Amino acid sequence: MADTPGRRVDDANADEPVEVHRAALLEGVSHGFLGRRGGVSMGDVAGLNVGLGSGDDPVAIARNRTLAAEAVLPGARLVTVYQVHSADCVVAQPGPDAERPQADALVTDRPGLLLGMLTADCAPVLFADRAAGVVGAAHAGWKGAIGGITDATIAAMEKLGARRESIVAAVGPCIAQASYEVDEAFRDRFAREHAGNVRHFLAGRPGHHQFDLEGYVVARLRAAGIGDVEGLGLDTYSAPQQFFSFRRATHRAEPSYGRQISLIGLA
Fold it and tell me: CA 226, CA 26: separation in Å to the nearest integer?
C-alpha cells in the first residue's frame, strides 16, 4: 500500500508529495519504500533522487534525503552505506557520508537511527523483530542475493538480540521478471548454486531467460526460517513516473539514472 504525506511549505520546489509504499507485515514499525515522486531534482533524475554517485546537484540530493527521512521518521538520523553488491552487513553508526562503510546491509537496535538502502532495480529488503526492538535493511542485487546478503542481515540482527522466528521482512520495488532479461550464463550460475533456483527463470527469446529477482529473494528469506515474508510486487522498470531504473535508463541511452531509497527505523 502507498500513502502520500502532505508536502510542507518549504518543499515548494518539489513537484508532488513524497510517495511512501508500506508493507503490511511491517505495520507499526517506522518504514517506507520510496520512489521518485516528491523530490527537487531535475532532468533525467527528476524527483526524489538520493544517489550520491548519480552526478546530480549535491544540494538537491541533500534536500531529497531530508525529505525522504522526514516522510518516514521525522527527526531521525539517516544512516546509509557505500553499496558494493557484497554480502556484508554492518551495525549502523552515524557519521559523515564521506566516511560511510562499504557494505550492503545495516542493522540497529538504537531508536532514532533511520537505516537507508538505495536501489534502481535491485531489491530493497526491510526487516524487523518488533519484540526485540531490532531492525535491518539490505540491498539485494543479484550478486548480493546469491552471495547471501539477506542471510548476513538476519545473522547480524540475531547478534543484537533478535529471534529468527520473530523476524519479518518485506521486499520492495525492484525490477520484475517480465522486465529482467538475462542470458544462459546468468541462469547457469544460479542453477549451480542450487538446482531449485531454475524455478525463478522463464524461457525468453533464444538463449535468454526472464529472471524473477523478487521471487528469488523471497524464497531465500523463507528458506532462512524467519517468521514471515512479503513481496510488494512493484516493478521499477515499467513505471518510469514512479521509480528510477538503471536498466531502463540504459535502454534509453540516458546519461544518468537516479536512485530511490528504502527506510526503516525505531521511533
Answer: 14
Asked if 37 contacts 234 with a C-beta cutoff of 8 angstroms, the reply is no
Domain extent listing, the chain = 2-173+227-265
CB contact set of 73 (below 8 Å; sequence gap of 6+): 30, 114, 263, 265, 267
User: How many beta carbons lie within 10 A of that of residue 111, not counting itself?
Assistant: 12
Note the CATH number of domain 2-173+227-265.
Answer: 3.60.140.10
| Helices assigned H by DSSP within 163-203 | 184-193
Residues 53 and 81: their CA atoms lie apart, in Å, by 12
Residue 11: pLDDT over 50: no
User: Strands across the sheet with 208-211, in order?
Assistant: 181-183, 208-211, 201-203
Q: Are strands 134-140 and 89-91 parallel, antiparallel or unpaired?
A: unpaired
Asked if residues 144 and 125 have their Cβ atoms less than 8 Å apart, the reply is no
Percent of the chain with pLDDT over 90: 92
User: What pLDDT was estimated at residue 152?
Assistant: 98
pLDDT tens string 149-163: 999 999 999 999 999
pLDDT digits (tens, 9 = 90+) for 50-67: 999 899 999 999 999 999
* pLDDT, averaged across the chain: 94
Q: What are the counts of helices (DSSP H) followed by strands (DSSP E) for the chain?
A: 6, 15
Using only C-alpha atoms, the chain has a radius of gyration, in whole angstroms, of: 18
CB 262 within 8 A of CB 79: no
Q: Are 187 and 201 in contact (CB under 8 A)?
A: yes
